[in-house]
Amino acid sequence: xxxxxxxxxxxxxxxxxxxxxxxxxxxxxxxxxxxxxxxxxxxxxxxxxxxxxxxxxxxxxxxxxxxxxxxxxxxxxxxxxxxxxxxxxxxxxxxxxxxxxxxxxxxxxxxxxxxxxxxxxxxxxxxxxxxxxxxxxxxxxxxxxxxxxxxxxxxxxxxxxxxxxxxxxxxxxxxxxx
Length: 178
Hints:
It is built from six helices and eight strands, in the order αβαββαβαβαββαβ. It is of the alpha/beta class. About 30% of the residues lie in helices and about 25% in strands. The strands form two sheets. Strands 4-2-3-5-8 form a five-stranded mixed beta sheet. The chain has a three-stranded antiparallel beta sheet with strand order 1-7-6. The chain starts with 17 loop residues before the first helix and ends with a strand.
């Protein structure tokens, strides 16, 4: 089982990535309250079960996808237990042939390593080249839980703050699908 610290309402003192530091700077600037926990390296959804218990919520699954030509990108937010099928995703958005983006594209576009994909990666997308897609059930939750930009820190914040303050700040709009 992965180590999980107590919950804190302040940023960590050290950061696991540049994105993580930017995430906490942005949340502080926007006055968005959050709870965060430091963890051992959490790379799988199974590792996240102890994190879920500590935060009192279910951490989402964040999937980074691209089209075959690697010219269109999608950040898909789903429940943790969701079984993802690329063909079904493509049909819902009328997109032919999507696939998982490579480790290199994950680092280049979101500024993270595998296992740390997060909605906060949109801070690294000022040209709005990444389409944000939410499973409707996640968008309707009171709390949103995710990586803060590393595999050693996770957080929760009000979903309303994400949609009403954070996304307008980044200029991204979410497409909701069932």
